[in-house]
Write a structure and sequence with these properties.
This protein is an all-alpha fold and about 450 residues long. Helix content is about 65%, strand content about 0%. It has 17 helices and two strands. The longest helix has about 30 residues. Bound molecules: protoporphyrin IX containing FE.
C-alpha cells in the first residue's frame, strides 16, 4: 500500500490483508487496532521530524519496564536485611538475571530522558494549545509519575549509592512548609530512612505508580485521538487547506512505529549486554560516601541547593516553574502556533539567543557564587532566607523582566516568542546545573574538573 493510492483503496486493501488467512483472529486484531488508532492519519503527521517518535519510544520503554519489573519481582525481597543479597543472588545465580536487571535499569533512565525530550518537542511545536490542553496536563502528570517510579526504584537495591542518594531526597522534604515534617515522619524515622521507607517505596514502585502510569497513558493516547490526531506540521506563516491528505494507518504509521521500536529495543538490549547495572556495597547507614549525590534527574535541584536557601531550591523555584507549566495552555496567546517548530522565524532566533545566554550566564554565576561572592556573605546580618533566597530569586526575576522588555522593544517579539525564550532559558540553566552537579563536583562538593 503506497501513500499515492486513494484512501478508500488503501483502507480496503488493509482490511482485505488482515481478514485473509484466519478470518476470525484477523478481524479481531484489525478492529482492535482500528479502535486503538484511527483508520487513517493525515499524511503530514507521518513526517519523522514532527515527533521524532519520542512519545512512541516512551510507551515502548514503559512496556519494557513493566515486563522486566514483573520478572524481577519474583526474586526481590523488600527487607533491608535481604534486599541487597536478593539482588546479588539474582545477578549471580539466575539465568539472564543480570541482563534483565540491566535492561530495567537502563530503560528506566532512558524513559526519563525520552519523556523529557518528548515534553520539549510538544512545547516547541506548540502542541499544548487547545484542543490539546488537557493532554498537556496529563503529560505533566505522567512525567511526575515517571520521576516517582525512578526514585522509588532507586532505593530498592539497598546499596550505599541507593541509600544515600534517597536519604538526600527525603532530607530535602523537611523544607516543604507545613507538610514536610509529616511527610518525612511517614516515610521513615525522621531524617533517616529505614525498613518502613523501603516498604513504602517498594509498594509505590511495584503497584501504585505503575498502575497510575498505565491508566494515565491510556487516557493520554485517547486524548491524542480526541484532538483529531497530532498537530499538523507547517512552516511559519503557512496557511493549511481545511482538508488534509490522509493515508491508511496500517501499514503507513504502524510500520514507522515498528521500526522505531525495534531500533530502540536493539539499542537498550545491546547496552544492557555490554554494561551491567551498577550495584555497590550493601547500605551502611553509619557511613556516608563523599560526595553524596542525589540521582541525576534531581542533581540540578541539589546544585541549586549549593547556591540558594533550601526553601527556595526545593519548594519556591520548582513550584514557580510547575505553576508556569500548568497555566501555560490557559494563557491567551496572540497566535496559535501549533505544528510550527519554535512558532516563527523570530521564535527560532530568540530561543537560540536565550539558550546561549543561559549557557554563559549560568556557568559564570555558578563559578562566581561558588568561588568569590556567596550571596549570604554580602549581607551577614540579614537572615539567610532573605540574603540567600529572596534576594537572589528576586534578582533573577528582575533579570527575566528586563529580558522580556528588551525582546519586545528590540525585536518586537510576541507573547509566544517571549514565553518560549524564558522557557528555553530556564531549561538550559537547569541542564547546566545538572551537569555541574553530576560531573564537576568532587569530594566535599568542591567545584573542579571531573
Ligand atoms: C510516559 C510518558 C509519555 C508517553 C508514553 C507519551 C506518549 C505519547 C504518544 C505516543 C503521543 C503521540 C505521538 C508522539 O508525539 O510521539 C503523545 C502525544 C502527546 N503528548 Fe505524550 N507521552 C508521555 C509524556 C508526555 C509529557 C511529559 C507531555 C508534556 C507535558 C506530553 C504531552 C503530549 C501532548 C500534548 C501530545 C499531543 C501532541 C500532538 O498532538 O502533536 N506527553 N504522547
Amino acid at each position: 500500500v503506497t501513500k499515492q493510492q486513494p484512501i478508500k483503496a488503501q483502507t480496503h486493501l488493509a482490511k482485505r490483508y488482515y481478514t485473509a488467512g484466519d478470518p476470525g483472529k484477523r478481524i479481531i486484531s484489525n478492529s482492535f487496532l482500528f479502535h486503538f488508532r484511527p483508520r487513517t492519519v493525515p499524511d503530514r503527521t507521518l513526517q519523522f521530524h514532527l515527533t521524532w517518535g519520542l512519545g512512541g519510544m516512551a510507551a515502548v520503554l514503559v512496556l519494557v519496564q513493566l515486563c522486566t519489573g514483573l520478572l524481577l519481582k519474583f526474586v526481590y525481597e523488600p527487607n533491608p536485611a535481604l534486599a541487597h543479597a536478593s539482588i546479588v543472588m539474582l545477578q549471580n545465580e539466575m539465568q539472564f538475571g543480570k541482563f534483565i536487571r540491566s535492561i530495567h535499569h537502563w530503560s528506566a533512565n532512558f524513559l526519563i530522558l525520552v519523556a523529557f525530550l518528548h515534553f520539549l518537542r510538544v512545547f516547541f511545536t506548540g502542541a499544548f494549545h487547545p484542543p490539546r490542553r488537557l493532554n498537556w496536563l496529563i503529560g505533566l502528570g505522567l512525567f511526575v509519575l515517571i520521576l516517582l517510579a525512578n526514585l522509588s526504584g532507586y532505593l530498592l537495591p539497598w546499596d550505599q549509592l541507593a541509600f544515600w542518594a534517597v536519604t538526600i531526597c527525603t532530607a530535602a522534604l523537611a523544607y516543604i512548609p507545613w507538610i514536610g515534617g509529616w511527610l518525612q515522619a511517614s516515610l521513615g524515622d525522621g531524617a533517616e530512612i529505614d525498613a518502613n521507607t523501603l516498604h513504602i517505596f517498594y509498594s509505590l514502585h511495584t503497584a501504585l505508580v505503575p498502575l497510575l502510569i498505565v491508566v494515565c497513558m491510556a487516557f493520554h493516547f485517547w486524548r491524542v485521538r480526541k484532538a483529531g490526531g497530532l498537530v499538523i506540521p507547517k512552516s511559519p506563516g503557512e496557511q493549511l487547506s481545511a482538508k488534509q491528505d490522509r493515508v491508511a494507518t496500517i501499514p503507513n504509521l504502524l510500520l514507522r512505529e515498528a521500526v522505531v521500536a525495534a531500533l530502540l529495543l536493539a539499542f537498550v538490549f545491546s547496552l544492557s549486554a555490554l554494561f551491567a547495572a551498577p550495584l555497590g556495597e550493601p547500605a551502611n547507614p553509619g557511613l556516608s560516601p563523599n560526595p553524596t549525590k542525589a540521582p541525576w534527574y534531581f542533581a540540578g535541584i541539589q546544585e541549586m541547593l549549593m547556591h540558594v536557601h533550601p526553601t527556595f531550591a526545593v519548594v519556591v523555584v520548582p513550584l514557580l516553574f510547575g505553576s508556569f507549566l500548568i497555566i501555560l495552555p490557559f494563557i491567551r496567546f496572540p497566535h496559535n502556533t501549533a505544528g510550527i517548530w519554535f512558532g516563527s522565524y523570530i521564535g527560532r532566533r530568540t530561543s537560540l539567543l536565550a539558550a546561549a545566554a543561559a549557557l554563559i550566564l549560568t556557568i559564570i554565576s555558578i563559578v562566581l557564587e561558588d568561588k568569590f561572592f556567596a550571596a549570604t556573605k554580602w549581607f551577614p546580618s540579614t537572615p539567610v532566607i532573605i540574603s540567600g533566597g529572596l534576594i537572589p530569586v528576586a534578582l533573577i526575576l528582575c533579570f527575566f523582566g528586563t529580558a522580556c522588555l528588551l525582546l519586545k522593544k528590540i525585536v518586537a517579539a510576541t507573547l509566544n516568542e517571549i514565553v518560549q525564550a524564558l522557557f528555553v532559558y530556564a531549561m538550559v540553566s537547569y541542564i547546566v546545573f545538572t551537569i555541574v552537579m553530576v560531573w564537576f563536583r568532587g569530594q566535599g562538593m568542591v567545584l573542579g574538573w571531573p
